[in-house]
Amino acid sequence: MLVVVLGITYGSLIGCLCNYMLFQALDERKRLGQEPLEGIGKIFFLRYAIDFMALILFWLLTRSAYGLIAVGLSITVAVKISLLIVYRRKGGKF
């Protein structure tokens, strides 16, 4: 049970950190006068690579399948939140 709570906390922190990095990059592009959503594919790829490394690190530290599932679900929720925010920034259209 403790590993699941630790997994939820760890996944939420990783997700929030990745969301912060994503929105900082978007704001930086906007501040430079560039289209902020133009290079978003590279930013999301980097984010998924960081998420993958975080999952591997958690697995190596705990060796708990339930904790790993908790981390994965927490990260997934954070990714969905960032996708929703990006969708809203685009004006709700693809």
Written description of the protein model:
- The chain has 94 residues and is mainly alpha-helical.
- The chain has three helices and no strands.
- The longest helix is centred in the N-terminal third of the chain and has 30 residues, at 2-31.
- The chain is elongated.
- The chain starts with a helix and ends in a 5-residue tail after the last helix.
- The mean pLDDT is 89.
What is the element layout, followed by pairings?
Elements: H1 2-31, H2 40-62, H3 65-89
Q: What about the largest sheet?
A: none
Radius of gyration: 15 Å
| Approximate shape | elongated
* Mean residue pLDDT: 89
Q: What is the H/E order? A: HHH
Number of helices: 3
Number of beta-strand segments: 0
**SS strand fraction:** under 5%
Helix content: over 70%
In the predicted model, the low-confidence regions spanning at least 5 consecutive residues are none
